[in-house]
Amino acid sequence: xxxxxxxxxxxxxxxxxxxxxxxxxxxxxxxxxxxxxxxxxxxxxxxxxxxxxxxxxxxxxxxxxxxxxxxxxxxxxxxxxxxxxxxxxxxxxxxxxxxxxxxxxxxxxxxxxxxxxxxxxxxxxxxxxxxxxxxxxxxxxxxxxxxxxxxxxxxxxxxxxxxxxxxxxxxxxxxxxxxxxxxxxxxxxxxxxxxxxxxxxxxxxxxxxxxxxxxxxxxxxxxxxxxxxxxxxxxxxxxxxxxxxxxxxxxxxxxxxxxxxxxxxxxxxxxxxxxxxxxx
Amino acid sequence: xxxxxxxxxxxxxxxxxxxxxxxxxxxxxxxxxxxxxxxxxxxxxxxxxxxxxxxxxxxxxxxxxxxxxxxxxxxxxxxxxxxxxxxxxxxxxxxxxxxxxxxxxxxxxxxxxxxxxxxxxxxxxxxxxxxxxxxxxxxxxxxxxxxxxxxxxxxxxxxxxxxxxxxxxxxxxxxxxxxxxxxxxxxxxxxxxxxxxxxxxxxxxxxxxxxxxxxxxxxxxxxxxxxxxxxxxxx
Lengths: 280, 235
Description:
- The complex is a heterodimer of chains A (280) and B (235).
- With 280 residues, chain A is of the alpha/beta class.
- Chain A has helices at residues 41-49, 71-75, 91-98, 107-116, 130-143, 160-173, 211-217, 259-268, 270-278, and strands at 2-9, 18-25, 30-35, 56-61, 77-80, 148-152, 179-184, 197-201, 204-209, 218-223, 232-238, 241-247.
- Helices cover 31% and strands 26% of the residues of chain A.
- In chain A, helix 6 links the parallel strand 6 (148-152) and strand 7 (179-184).
- In chain A, helix 4 runs antiparallel to helix 5 and helix 8 packs across helix 9 (270-278).
- Chain A is globular and about 65 Å long.
- Chain A starts with a strand and ends with a helix.
- Chain B starts with a helix and ends with a helix.
- The longest helix of chain B has 39 residues, at 75-113.
- In chain B, helix 1 (2-26) packs parallel to helix 4, helix 2 (35-59) runs parallel beside helix 5 (125-148) and helix 7 (193-207) packs across helix 8 (209-231).
- Chain B has helices at 2-26, 35-59, 65-69, 75-113, 125-148, 153-184, 193-207, 209-231.
- Chain B is mainly α and 235 residues long.
- At the A-B interface, helix 2 of A face helix 3 of B.
Protein backbone atom coordinates (compact mmCIF):
# COMPACT_ATOMS: atom_id res chain seq x y z
CA UNK A 1 0.00 0.00 0.00
CA UNK A 2 2.54 2.62 1.17
CA UNK A 3 6.26 1.94 0.95
CA UNK A 4 8.73 4.71 1.75
CA UNK A 5 12.40 3.93 1.28
CA UNK A 6 15.22 6.17 2.51
CA UNK A 7 13.21 9.30 1.93
CA UNK A 8 14.95 12.63 2.28
CA UNK A 9 13.07 15.87 1.96
CA UNK A 10 13.47 19.48 2.96
CA UNK A 11 11.90 22.76 1.95
CA UNK A 12 15.35 24.36 1.94
CA UNK A 13 18.38 22.82 0.28
CA UNK A 14 20.55 22.56 3.37
CA UNK A 15 17.78 21.98 5.89
CA UNK A 16 16.35 18.48 5.71
CA UNK A 17 13.04 17.72 7.40
CA UNK A 18 13.31 13.99 6.70
CA UNK A 19 16.54 12.08 6.39
CA UNK A 20 16.51 8.41 5.31
CA UNK A 21 12.92 7.96 6.46
CA UNK A 22 11.56 4.42 6.14
CA UNK A 23 7.93 3.33 6.40
CA UNK A 24 5.84 0.37 5.32
CA UNK A 25 2.07 0.52 5.72
CA UNK A 26 0.04 -2.45 4.44
CA UNK A 27 -3.62 -1.97 3.56
CA UNK A 28 -6.68 -2.56 5.69
CA UNK A 29 -5.74 -0.40 8.67
CA UNK A 30 -6.48 2.98 10.17
CA UNK A 31 -3.01 4.44 10.68
CA UNK A 32 -2.55 7.18 13.21
CA UNK A 33 0.34 9.48 12.39
CA UNK A 34 1.29 11.37 15.51
CA UNK A 35 3.89 14.04 16.03
CA UNK A 36 4.58 17.38 17.60
CA UNK A 37 3.84 20.61 15.73
CA UNK A 38 6.39 20.96 12.97
CA UNK A 39 7.39 17.29 13.07
CA UNK A 40 6.51 16.97 9.39
CA UNK A 41 3.18 15.15 9.53
CA UNK A 42 1.51 17.28 6.84
CA UNK A 43 4.67 17.18 4.73
CA UNK A 44 4.75 13.39 4.92
CA UNK A 45 1.09 13.22 3.87
CA UNK A 46 1.80 15.54 0.95
CA UNK A 47 4.70 13.34 -0.09
CA UNK A 48 2.44 10.28 0.05
CA UNK A 49 -0.19 12.01 -2.09
CA UNK A 50 2.39 13.23 -4.61
CA UNK A 51 1.79 16.89 -3.85
CA UNK A 52 5.45 17.17 -2.85
CA UNK A 53 8.34 15.37 -4.49
CA UNK A 54 11.11 13.64 -2.52
CA UNK A 55 14.64 15.00 -2.84
CA UNK A 56 16.11 11.53 -2.34
CA UNK A 57 14.72 8.04 -1.86
CA UNK A 58 11.47 6.67 -3.15
CA UNK A 59 7.79 6.48 -2.31
CA UNK A 60 5.44 3.86 -3.65
CA UNK A 61 1.74 4.26 -2.97
CA UNK A 62 -0.86 1.82 -4.33
CA UNK A 63 1.90 0.31 -6.45
CA UNK A 64 2.81 3.52 -8.26
CA UNK A 65 4.99 6.57 -7.91
CA UNK A 66 2.66 9.27 -6.56
CA UNK A 67 4.65 12.12 -8.15
CA UNK A 68 3.48 10.92 -11.58
CA UNK A 69 -0.14 11.66 -10.62
CA UNK A 70 -1.55 8.94 -12.83
CA UNK A 71 -5.31 8.93 -13.19
CA UNK A 72 -5.73 5.41 -11.73
CA UNK A 73 -3.78 6.49 -8.68
CA UNK A 74 -5.72 9.74 -8.24
CA UNK A 75 -9.03 7.89 -8.50
CA UNK A 76 -7.98 5.62 -5.65
CA UNK A 77 -6.74 8.24 -3.21
CA UNK A 78 -8.67 10.97 -1.43
CA UNK A 79 -6.89 13.59 0.64
CA UNK A 80 -8.55 16.04 3.00
CA UNK A 81 -6.05 18.63 4.22
CA UNK A 82 -6.33 20.55 7.45
CA UNK A 83 -7.38 23.70 5.64
CA UNK A 84 -9.18 23.76 2.33
CA UNK A 85 -11.59 25.78 0.27
CA UNK A 86 -14.79 24.49 -1.23
CA UNK A 87 -16.48 25.67 -4.41
CA UNK A 88 -19.57 27.82 -4.16
CA UNK A 89 -21.96 25.02 -5.10
CA UNK A 90 -24.94 23.25 -3.61
CA UNK A 91 -24.30 19.70 -2.45
CA UNK A 92 -26.15 18.32 -5.47
CA UNK A 93 -24.04 20.45 -7.84
CA UNK A 94 -20.87 19.47 -5.99
CA UNK A 95 -21.73 15.79 -6.30
CA UNK A 96 -22.62 16.19 -9.97
CA UNK A 97 -19.38 18.05 -10.74
CA UNK A 98 -16.91 15.89 -8.84
CA UNK A 99 -18.35 12.37 -8.63
CA UNK A 100 -17.66 11.48 -12.32
CA UNK A 101 -13.95 11.68 -11.52
CA UNK A 102 -14.29 8.80 -9.06
CA UNK A 103 -15.58 5.65 -10.80
CA UNK A 104 -16.34 3.85 -7.51
CA UNK A 105 -18.34 6.76 -6.12
CA UNK A 106 -21.61 5.65 -4.52
CA UNK A 107 -24.31 8.40 -4.36
CA UNK A 108 -26.38 6.45 -1.82
CA UNK A 109 -23.41 6.16 0.49
CA UNK A 110 -22.82 9.90 0.13
CA UNK A 111 -26.39 10.64 1.21
CA UNK A 112 -26.09 8.19 4.11
CA UNK A 113 -22.90 9.81 5.39
CA UNK A 114 -24.35 13.29 5.03
CA UNK A 115 -27.35 12.17 7.04
CA UNK A 116 -25.13 10.64 9.67
CA UNK A 117 -23.22 13.91 9.99
CA UNK A 118 -26.50 15.91 10.10
CA UNK A 119 -25.59 18.04 7.08
CA UNK A 120 -28.46 20.14 5.68
CA UNK A 121 -28.59 18.80 2.11
CA UNK A 122 -30.17 21.88 0.50
CA UNK A 123 -27.56 24.31 1.86
CA UNK A 124 -24.94 25.90 -0.38
CA UNK A 125 -21.41 24.92 0.55
CA UNK A 126 -20.10 28.46 0.98
CA UNK A 127 -22.82 29.08 3.58
CA UNK A 128 -21.63 26.13 5.67
CA UNK A 129 -19.40 26.32 8.72
CA UNK A 130 -15.87 24.95 8.44
CA UNK A 131 -16.87 21.87 10.45
CA UNK A 132 -19.80 21.19 8.11
CA UNK A 133 -17.60 21.58 5.05
CA UNK A 134 -15.15 19.13 6.58
CA UNK A 135 -17.95 16.63 7.12
CA UNK A 136 -19.09 17.05 3.50
CA UNK A 137 -15.55 16.38 2.28
CA UNK A 138 -15.31 13.37 4.57
CA UNK A 139 -18.63 12.04 3.31
CA UNK A 140 -17.52 12.54 -0.27
CA UNK A 141 -14.14 10.94 0.37
CA UNK A 142 -15.72 7.92 2.02
CA UNK A 143 -18.37 7.60 -0.70
CA UNK A 144 -15.66 7.80 -3.38
CA UNK A 145 -14.61 4.34 -2.14
CA UNK A 146 -11.02 5.20 -2.86
CA UNK A 147 -8.57 2.67 -1.43
CA UNK A 148 -6.59 5.27 0.47
CA UNK A 149 -8.21 8.05 2.48
CA UNK A 150 -5.77 10.55 3.95
CA UNK A 151 -6.95 12.91 6.63
CA UNK A 152 -4.85 15.72 8.04
CA UNK A 153 -6.05 16.85 11.46
CA UNK A 154 -9.61 15.67 10.77
CA UNK A 155 -10.97 16.70 14.17
CA UNK A 156 -9.85 20.35 13.90
CA UNK A 157 -12.95 22.50 13.58
CA UNK A 158 -15.31 19.72 14.71
CA UNK A 159 -17.42 20.07 17.84
CA UNK A 160 -17.48 17.35 20.52
CA UNK A 161 -20.48 15.37 19.13
CA UNK A 162 -18.99 15.57 15.64
CA UNK A 163 -15.72 14.05 16.82
CA UNK A 164 -17.70 11.05 18.08
CA UNK A 165 -19.59 10.86 14.76
CA UNK A 166 -16.30 10.96 12.87
CA UNK A 167 -14.84 8.09 14.91
CA UNK A 168 -18.01 6.05 14.40
CA UNK A 169 -18.20 6.65 10.67
CA UNK A 170 -14.52 5.89 10.10
CA UNK A 171 -14.63 2.75 12.21
CA UNK A 172 -17.66 1.48 10.26
CA UNK A 173 -16.17 2.30 6.86
CA UNK A 174 -12.86 0.50 7.11
CA UNK A 175 -12.51 -2.72 5.15
CA UNK A 176 -9.60 -5.01 4.24
CA UNK A 177 -9.26 -3.25 0.87
CA UNK A 178 -9.20 0.26 2.29
CA UNK A 179 -6.67 2.19 4.31
CA UNK A 180 -7.15 5.35 6.31
CA UNK A 181 -4.15 7.47 7.17
CA UNK A 182 -4.91 10.00 9.87
CA UNK A 183 -2.48 12.64 11.01
CA UNK A 184 -3.14 14.52 14.21
CA UNK A 185 -1.57 16.09 17.24
CA UNK A 186 -4.86 15.77 19.15
CA UNK A 187 -4.34 12.16 20.11
CA UNK A 188 -7.36 11.86 22.39
CA UNK A 189 -9.73 12.61 19.51
CA UNK A 190 -8.79 9.47 17.65
CA UNK A 191 -8.01 7.09 20.48
CA UNK A 192 -9.75 3.71 20.15
CA UNK A 193 -9.78 4.23 16.39
CA UNK A 194 -6.23 4.06 15.15
CA UNK A 195 -4.20 0.92 14.78
CA UNK A 196 -1.21 0.95 14.18
CA UNK A 197 0.31 4.01 15.79
CA UNK A 198 3.11 5.84 13.98
CA UNK A 199 5.08 8.54 15.78
CA UNK A 200 7.19 10.98 13.84
CA UNK A 201 9.97 12.99 15.45
CA UNK A 202 13.14 14.72 14.26
CA UNK A 203 12.57 13.65 10.68
CA UNK A 204 12.24 9.96 11.45
CA UNK A 205 9.60 7.39 12.28
CA UNK A 206 10.56 6.65 15.87
CA UNK A 207 7.64 4.38 16.70
CA UNK A 208 5.46 2.18 14.51
CA UNK A 209 3.51 -0.52 16.34
CA UNK A 210 0.10 -2.13 16.33
CA UNK A 211 -2.17 -1.73 19.34
CA UNK A 212 -1.89 -5.48 20.05
CA UNK A 213 1.87 -5.21 20.14
CA UNK A 214 1.74 -2.15 22.38
CA UNK A 215 -0.64 -3.95 24.76
CA UNK A 216 1.58 -6.98 24.92
CA UNK A 217 4.70 -4.95 25.75
CA UNK A 218 3.33 -2.06 27.77
CA UNK A 219 0.94 -1.52 30.60
CA UNK A 220 -0.92 1.75 31.18
CA UNK A 221 -2.21 2.51 34.66
CA UNK A 222 -3.54 5.28 36.85
CA UNK A 223 -1.83 5.01 40.23
CA UNK A 224 -1.92 7.10 43.35
CA UNK A 225 1.83 6.63 43.76
CA UNK A 226 4.67 5.69 41.44
CA UNK A 227 6.83 2.80 42.51
CA UNK A 228 10.39 3.37 41.48
CA UNK A 229 10.97 0.05 39.76
CA UNK A 230 12.72 -0.85 36.53
CA UNK A 231 9.33 -1.70 35.05
CA UNK A 232 8.20 1.95 35.04
CA UNK A 233 9.17 3.67 31.81
CA UNK A 234 7.38 6.98 32.06
CA UNK A 235 4.88 8.71 34.31
CA UNK A 236 3.00 11.97 34.41
CA UNK A 237 1.36 13.67 37.33
CA UNK A 238 -2.41 14.03 37.04
CA UNK A 239 -4.91 15.50 39.51
CA UNK A 240 -5.20 12.82 42.19
CA UNK A 241 -2.41 10.54 41.01
CA UNK A 242 -0.11 9.48 38.22
CA UNK A 243 -0.53 8.15 34.74
CA UNK A 244 2.09 5.47 34.34
CA UNK A 245 3.54 3.53 31.43
CA UNK A 246 5.28 0.34 32.52
CA UNK A 247 6.74 -2.68 30.83
CA UNK A 248 4.20 -5.44 30.60
CA UNK A 249 5.92 -8.49 31.94
CA UNK A 250 2.97 -10.65 31.00
CA UNK A 251 0.92 -10.14 34.17
CA UNK A 252 -1.46 -7.61 32.68
CA UNK A 253 -4.04 -8.61 30.11
CA UNK A 254 -6.57 -6.29 28.49
CA UNK A 255 -6.78 -2.63 29.41
CA UNK A 256 -6.52 0.34 27.11
CA UNK A 257 -3.73 2.22 25.43
CA UNK A 258 -3.54 5.79 26.62
CA UNK A 259 -2.34 7.40 23.39
CA UNK A 260 -1.46 10.71 24.97
CA UNK A 261 0.91 9.30 27.56
CA UNK A 262 2.26 6.80 25.05
CA UNK A 263 3.07 9.68 22.73
CA UNK A 264 4.82 11.66 25.49
CA UNK A 265 6.61 8.55 26.70
CA UNK A 266 7.93 7.69 23.25
CA UNK A 267 9.18 11.23 22.66
CA UNK A 268 10.91 11.29 26.03
CA UNK A 269 12.36 7.75 25.92
CA UNK A 270 12.64 6.79 22.27
CA UNK A 271 15.73 4.64 22.81
CA UNK A 272 14.04 2.63 25.59
CA UNK A 273 11.03 2.03 23.37
CA UNK A 274 13.21 0.90 20.50
CA UNK A 275 14.84 -1.65 22.79
CA UNK A 276 11.54 -2.88 24.26
CA UNK A 277 9.90 -3.35 20.87
CA UNK A 278 12.91 -4.92 19.24
CA UNK A 279 12.84 -7.71 21.83
CA UNK A 280 11.26 -10.86 20.51
CA UNK B 1 -14.62 33.75 -14.92
CA UNK B 2 -16.39 34.47 -18.20
CA UNK B 3 -19.08 36.52 -16.42
CA UNK B 4 -16.39 38.70 -14.84
CA UNK B 5 -14.67 39.04 -18.20
CA UNK B 6 -17.96 40.00 -19.86
CA UNK B 7 -18.61 42.65 -17.21
CA UNK B 8 -15.11 44.11 -17.57
CA UNK B 9 -15.38 44.18 -21.38
CA UNK B 10 -18.77 45.92 -21.20
CA UNK B 11 -17.57 48.60 -18.78
CA UNK B 12 -14.36 49.31 -20.73
CA UNK B 13 -16.27 49.26 -24.00
CA UNK B 14 -18.82 51.76 -22.75
CA UNK B 15 -16.22 54.08 -21.24
CA UNK B 16 -14.13 54.08 -24.37
CA UNK B 17 -17.21 54.53 -26.54
CA UNK B 18 -18.33 57.51 -24.52
CA UNK B 19 -14.89 59.11 -24.57
CA UNK B 20 -14.81 58.76 -28.37
CA UNK B 21 -18.28 60.15 -29.06
CA UNK B 22 -17.19 63.80 -29.32
CA UNK B 23 -14.37 62.93 -31.66
CA UNK B 24 -16.67 60.76 -33.74
CA UNK B 25 -19.30 63.46 -34.04
CA UNK B 26 -16.82 66.13 -35.13
CA UNK B 27 -14.81 63.97 -37.55
CA UNK B 28 -15.84 62.14 -40.61
CA UNK B 29 -16.71 58.46 -40.22
CA UNK B 30 -13.60 57.45 -42.11
CA UNK B 31 -11.43 58.74 -39.30
CA UNK B 32 -12.95 56.20 -36.93
CA UNK B 33 -13.05 53.15 -39.09
CA UNK B 34 -10.19 51.53 -37.17
CA UNK B 35 -11.70 52.20 -33.78
CA UNK B 36 -13.30 48.76 -33.40
CA UNK B 37 -10.30 46.93 -34.82
CA UNK B 38 -7.84 48.56 -32.48
CA UNK B 39 -10.14 48.47 -29.52
CA UNK B 40 -11.08 44.82 -30.00
CA UNK B 41 -7.44 43.76 -30.22
CA UNK B 42 -6.53 45.82 -27.19
CA UNK B 43 -9.42 44.47 -25.20
CA UNK B 44 -8.71 40.86 -26.15
CA UNK B 45 -5.03 41.24 -25.33
CA UNK B 46 -5.40 42.95 -21.97
CA UNK B 47 -8.38 41.02 -20.60
CA UNK B 48 -6.98 37.79 -22.04
CA UNK B 49 -3.65 38.34 -20.32
CA UNK B 50 -5.46 38.74 -16.99
CA UNK B 51 -7.67 35.69 -17.56
CA UNK B 52 -4.75 33.53 -18.74
CA UNK B 53 -2.43 34.68 -15.95
CA UNK B 54 -4.97 33.98 -13.26
CA UNK B 55 -6.22 30.63 -14.56
CA UNK B 56 -3.54 28.33 -13.14
CA UNK B 57 -2.43 30.81 -10.48
CA UNK B 58 -5.90 30.75 -8.90
CA UNK B 59 -6.13 26.97 -9.10
CA UNK B 60 -2.75 26.53 -7.46
CA UNK B 61 -3.09 29.07 -4.66
CA UNK B 62 -2.21 27.64 -1.25
CA UNK B 63 -5.45 25.99 -0.06
CA UNK B 64 -6.82 25.26 -3.53
CA UNK B 65 -3.78 23.71 -5.14
CA UNK B 66 -4.21 20.27 -3.60
CA UNK B 67 -7.74 19.78 -4.98
CA UNK B 68 -6.72 20.80 -8.50
CA UNK B 69 -3.56 18.71 -8.61
CA UNK B 70 -5.30 15.71 -7.08
CA UNK B 71 -8.29 15.81 -9.39
CA UNK B 72 -8.26 12.48 -11.21
CA UNK B 73 -7.21 13.60 -14.68
CA UNK B 74 -3.87 13.61 -16.46
CA UNK B 75 -1.53 16.61 -16.38
CA UNK B 76 -2.04 16.92 -20.12
CA UNK B 77 -5.83 17.08 -19.74
CA UNK B 78 -5.48 19.74 -17.07
CA UNK B 79 -3.10 21.79 -19.19
CA UNK B 80 -5.04 21.44 -22.43
CA UNK B 81 -8.27 22.43 -20.68
CA UNK B 82 -6.49 25.59 -19.50
CA UNK B 83 -5.25 26.37 -23.01
CA UNK B 84 -8.66 25.75 -24.58
CA UNK B 85 -10.63 27.76 -22.04
CA UNK B 86 -8.32 30.77 -21.81
CA UNK B 87 -6.92 30.59 -25.36
CA UNK B 88 -9.22 29.78 -28.26
CA UNK B 89 -12.30 29.63 -26.02
CA UNK B 90 -11.78 33.06 -24.56
CA UNK B 91 -10.83 34.60 -27.94
CA UNK B 92 -14.04 33.30 -29.57
CA UNK B 93 -16.09 34.37 -26.56
CA UNK B 94 -14.63 37.90 -26.70
CA UNK B 95 -15.16 38.13 -30.45
CA UNK B 96 -18.82 37.12 -30.23
CA UNK B 97 -19.45 39.21 -27.16
CA UNK B 98 -17.79 42.26 -28.73
CA UNK B 99 -19.77 41.77 -31.93
CA UNK B 100 -23.08 41.67 -30.06
CA UNK B 101 -22.09 44.66 -27.92
CA UNK B 102 -21.05 46.67 -31.01
CA UNK B 103 -24.36 45.85 -32.74
CA UNK B 104 -26.39 46.86 -29.71
CA UNK B 105 -24.47 50.10 -29.22
CA UNK B 106 -24.68 50.95 -32.94
CA UNK B 107 -28.45 50.47 -32.80
CA UNK B 108 -28.72 52.71 -29.76
CA UNK B 109 -26.46 55.48 -31.13
CA UNK B 110 -28.24 55.42 -34.50
CA UNK B 111 -31.54 55.90 -32.71
CA UNK B 112 -30.15 58.73 -30.57
CA UNK B 113 -27.81 60.61 -32.96
CA UNK B 114 -29.30 59.65 -36.27
CA UNK B 115 -26.23 57.85 -37.59
CA UNK B 116 -23.60 55.35 -36.51
CA UNK B 117 -20.61 56.82 -34.70
CA UNK B 118 -18.13 54.24 -35.93
CA UNK B 119 -17.73 51.88 -38.82
CA UNK B 120 -19.66 48.72 -37.95
CA UNK B 121 -17.63 45.89 -36.43
CA UNK B 122 -17.44 42.99 -38.84
CA UNK B 123 -15.89 39.53 -38.77
CA UNK B 124 -13.06 40.58 -41.07
CA UNK B 125 -11.05 37.33 -41.52
CA UNK B 126 -7.72 39.17 -41.53
CA UNK B 127 -8.56 41.04 -38.36
CA UNK B 128 -9.74 37.88 -36.66
CA UNK B 129 -6.71 35.84 -37.78
CA UNK B 130 -4.18 38.51 -36.77
CA UNK B 131 -5.87 39.17 -33.44
CA UNK B 132 -6.05 35.47 -32.60
CA UNK B 133 -2.48 34.87 -33.73
CA UNK B 134 -1.13 37.54 -31.42
CA UNK B 135 -3.51 36.61 -28.62
CA UNK B 136 -2.43 32.95 -28.60
CA UNK B 137 1.10 34.17 -27.86
CA UNK B 138 -0.13 36.37 -25.05
CA UNK B 139 -2.20 33.47 -23.71
CA UNK B 140 0.71 31.01 -23.76
CA UNK B 141 3.01 33.53 -22.07
CA UNK B 142 0.61 34.42 -19.25
CA UNK B 143 -0.48 30.81 -18.71
CA UNK B 144 3.17 29.99 -18.05
CA UNK B 145 3.46 33.10 -15.86
CA UNK B 146 0.48 31.90 -13.81
CA UNK B 147 2.16 28.53 -13.31
CA UNK B 148 5.32 30.17 -12.00
CA UNK B 149 3.85 33.04 -9.97
CA UNK B 150 0.75 32.21 -7.98
CA UNK B 151 0.44 35.67 -6.45
CA UNK B 152 0.05 38.68 -8.78
CA UNK B 153 0.90 36.56 -11.85
CA UNK B 154 0.04 39.23 -14.45
CA UNK B 155 2.19 42.00 -12.99
CA UNK B 156 5.08 39.63 -12.31
CA UNK B 157 4.94 38.17 -15.83
CA UNK B 158 4.99 41.66 -17.34
CA UNK B 159 7.88 42.64 -15.05
CA UNK B 160 9.89 39.55 -16.04
CA UNK B 161 9.22 40.14 -19.76
CA UNK B 162 10.28 43.75 -19.34
CA UNK B 163 13.44 42.64 -17.55
CA UNK B 164 14.27 40.10 -20.27
CA UNK B 165 13.62 42.69 -22.97
CA UNK B 166 15.86 45.29 -21.32
CA UNK B 167 18.57 42.68 -20.70
CA UNK B 168 18.41 41.39 -24.25
CA UNK B 169 18.51 44.93 -25.68
CA UNK B 170 21.53 45.77 -23.54
CA UNK B 171 23.40 42.65 -24.62
CA UNK B 172 22.45 43.19 -28.26
CA UNK B 173 23.38 46.88 -28.13
CA UNK B 174 26.70 46.24 -26.42
CA UNK B 175 27.56 43.44 -28.84
CA UNK B 176 26.82 45.70 -31.78
CA UNK B 177 28.82 48.56 -30.29
CA UNK B 178 31.84 46.54 -29.15
CA UNK B 179 32.10 43.84 -31.85
CA UNK B 180 30.34 44.84 -35.05
CA UNK B 181 30.48 48.64 -34.96
CA UNK B 182 33.42 49.07 -37.28
CA UNK B 183 32.35 46.22 -39.56
CA UNK B 184 28.90 47.68 -40.14
CA UNK B 185 30.34 51.17 -40.54
CA UNK B 186 27.70 53.11 -38.61
CA UNK B 187 29.31 56.41 -37.71
CA UNK B 188 27.20 59.20 -36.34
CA UNK B 189 24.54 60.20 -38.86
CA UNK B 190 26.46 59.04 -41.92
CA UNK B 191 25.10 55.75 -43.22
CA UNK B 192 26.78 54.40 -46.35
CA UNK B 193 24.55 52.82 -49.02
CA UNK B 194 25.49 49.13 -48.59
CA UNK B 195 24.77 49.39 -44.90
CA UNK B 196 21.42 51.00 -45.60
CA UNK B 197 20.49 48.03 -47.79
CA UNK B 198 21.62 45.62 -45.08
CA UNK B 199 19.60 47.59 -42.54
CA UNK B 200 16.51 47.45 -44.75
CA UNK B 201 16.89 43.71 -45.19
CA UNK B 202 17.29 43.27 -41.47
CA UNK B 203 14.23 45.40 -40.82
CA UNK B 204 12.08 43.51 -43.31
CA UNK B 205 13.32 40.19 -41.88
CA UNK B 206 12.46 41.24 -38.34
CA UNK B 207 9.06 42.56 -39.35
CA UNK B 208 8.17 39.80 -41.73
CA UNK B 209 9.62 36.31 -41.57
CA UNK B 210 11.01 36.44 -38.07
CA UNK B 211 7.77 37.84 -36.69
CA UNK B 212 5.80 35.07 -38.42
CA UNK B 213 8.18 32.40 -37.15
CA UNK B 214 8.13 33.90 -33.67
CA UNK B 215 4.34 34.06 -33.57
CA UNK B 216 4.16 30.43 -34.66
CA UNK B 217 6.91 28.90 -32.54
CA UNK B 218 6.52 31.17 -29.52
CA UNK B 219 3.29 29.66 -28.19
CA UNK B 220 4.46 26.10 -28.90
CA UNK B 221 7.61 26.67 -26.84
CA UNK B 222 5.66 28.37 -24.05
CA UNK B 223 2.93 25.70 -23.98
CA UNK B 224 5.45 22.87 -23.77
CA UNK B 225 7.36 24.68 -21.01
CA UNK B 226 4.07 25.35 -19.22
CA UNK B 227 3.02 21.72 -19.45
CA UNK B 228 6.27 20.52 -17.88
CA UNK B 229 5.96 23.20 -15.22
CA UNK B 230 2.46 21.91 -14.34
CA UNK B 231 3.76 18.35 -14.29
CA UNK B 232 6.43 19.31 -11.75
CA UNK B 233 4.08 21.52 -9.75
CA UNK B 234 3.97 20.93 -6.00
CA UNK B 235 1.41 22.13 -3.48
